[in-house]
Write the structure tokens for this entry.
Amino acid sequence: MKLICIGRNYAQHISELKNEKPTEPVLFLKPDTAILLKKQPFFIPDFSDEVHHEVEVLVKINRVGKHIDVKFAHKYYDEIGLGIDFTARELQQKLKEKGLPWEKAKAFDGSAVVGKWVSKSKFENLDNLPFSLLKNNKTVQSSTTQDMLWSIDEIIAYVSQFFTLKIGDIIFTGTPSGVSPVQPNDSLKGFIGEEQFFSIKVK
């Protein structure tokens, strides 16, 4: 099982980090060891003083696929979730400046929160799905999948050009603006619409 992450998929987030708008999706991977264990707090790693939260809509792949056409992409998932891509921001910036891979900043142990899963049939329109992140009960990130540069189905089709998708693979579809550092004792809660999908503490 692999975690496939999409970077720079929301225009306002691209602007807030002063990144260049991409002409195609930006891909990176996290290993399964990045998944934060259920009911465990997120521990800020010793190697970073600036870990940012990035709330993202998640998709779980339900069949093996390669070179998937966009019009058939909807057949490759039937569950939607919500999670966090934790990012050691200052370390990522140093790596980017040197032209090096991001994994140390993105794929460390516990860097991927995966909340509960629900059937996609529960939602009327996956291309206009409202979601948000509350930090200490204050909304810090809020958007809708309508603001994605590439939709869920477009992402699946694109990713499958490079990686064979396997049952259980999880796609992180990108984060909207509002990312910020987490601090010890922070509480993070993620919502799709009014429904809570995860709640974690920061240590």
